[in-house]
Amino acid sequence: MKKLKNLLQQIDGKSYKGYKQIQGRYFFPSYELLIDYVQGDPFAAPSKIRVRIPHKTRAIDQEWTSTNKRKVFAEDVMTRKVSNVIQHSNPNVHGSGKSGLVVIDRPGQEILERTAVVFENGYTTVCLTVGLPANGRRINGKQADKLFFQVLPEMIEKSVLSITDKEIDEAVKLADQHQVILDKMKEEGFISFIADGATLPRASGVSDQPMKNAVAFQSPEANRVAIKLPHREEPLTGMAIRKGIALIVGGGYHGKSTLLKAIERGVYPHISGDGREYVVTDPQAVKVRAEDGRQVTNVDISPFIKNLPHGVDTTQFSTENASGSTSQAANVIEAIEAGAQTLLIDEDTSATNFMIRDERMQELVVSEKEPITPFIDKITQMRDELDVSTILVMGGSGDYFHAADEVIMMDQYVPHHVTEQAKQIAAKYPSKRQTLEESFGTLPARSFEAQSIQARKGKKEKVQAKGRALILMGRTELALDAVEQLVDPSQTNLIADLLLHLSKKGWLDKNYSLKELLDKIDQQLDEEGLASIAPFKDQHPGELARPRRFEIASALNRLRTAKVRDLR
Ligand code: ADP
Ligand code: MG
What is the whole-number distance in angstroms between the Cα of residue 480 and the centre of ligand 1? Predict the structure, then answer.
């Protein structure tokens, strides 16, 4: 501690580069401070520090970390505490550039495994980003002294050392409830559960906060189930969607997409008060949409698309600029390849010609001339042959009535069970559509080769995330806008680091199928933690949060530089 104080005094007023000397480890009364990375300039990317509070100082109950889920929820609530304290404090440390900045990776509404706060080896480690104070480009040692000896200790005091056991207990209880819902879903074959009373709509298109005064979710009686939860007297009731084909219908603006969106996000847990804390979806559910313009590399889209003009081979289909239908076909195949058990599809983001083709069009355009086998002709095969379920929003066509196992109609934001009516209507107007295909087709097995990752930019290898939806790899852009279940910029950070890590680790030289590769990645993240893929060992790992294997696969699949081999 004294050492840091002296150093700051010595370098006060000197050139900013002098700050490099303070890199290192310092002991404070209630924690250790690790200054891992010192910025080169007051305007450059700020410095990275960690604060390690021994569990002797702030006890972490063993119960809070007895399962991985509990640990993630407990760390999450601690992260939010630190974040709130930082947001509400005014450090009053001034100077040029980023002087006096203090930030932690702030979670959104989802509860994700992240590196911001970790309970490990007897410590609570808090990862922060700080701007070391300067006057112009000179070190301001006095302000730095204030930052390290006043501002930071106070922030830690008010957060890690002040959070009550009760606050952490509450998060752990929610973790247990979430797990019970998931277990029950698995046992009963539910792919989604939406609790009565849930708030599905969000405050606005740019806010993930719950809408105020929204119509609370109310399950239709026929779909209602009750789940007995720990830490709760009454069983939790809500709507269960079973494995199979579920169709969500209803008039425009009656809440169909809002319901599907909540289902989509239900693959992640949400914080208490979000309104979706008891909306839980099969974690292997993947949103599939049209995404024209995307890169596709060596994907067998022949189950959906054959006989393209000019004899283009669709069993190993590649393009730098996919159309609506080819992109959606590739998205379906890739999701299944990565292990999706449920597909989530909204008409609003689908290519019409991919989803439906009616009898009139079949008569006009003979099937030899039409490359597309629409999703409607595949949906039951996927269910019966591949055990892949679909939840589909479709307000514009009744073609799916006959295929659906369950039809739910949204009416003024309230769902109704209309399966029997839909079936009667389907029987009354038998479809004259022809179903052509007999079986789904062969499944893909592809391997990504090492040259897929070309991170060289000048001499330095660089892969960098720029917000949630963009990764820069050397000079090429990897756009993830349409990967809707990638929800947090820190997940994108992790994927960026992972791309570099993969090439360093040599995993792309080994002929692993994509599925095996994703298994390997999941295993490493499970066993060695998120920080294990960060570029610098035993240092601040950066702002990382865990994506699912599907979002990792989505990034690989969209690489403009992908080199992919068919293993079949
Ligand atoms: P659809 O897909 O059926 O056309 P949306 O799901 O897009 O309809 O919903 C239309 C509008 O209604 C959106 O602005 C949405 O925020 C709002 N909305 C959806 N569900 C609710 C609800 N439960 N309470 C209040 N407003 C809602
Ligand atoms: Mg809609």
Answer: 25
